[in-house]
Amino acid sequence: MLENKLKTENYLLGERFGVADAYLYAEQGWLPRFDILLAPWPALHAYFQHIDARPAVQAAYQAEDAAAPVL
Question: pTM (2 decimals)?
Answer without folding.
Answer: 0.83
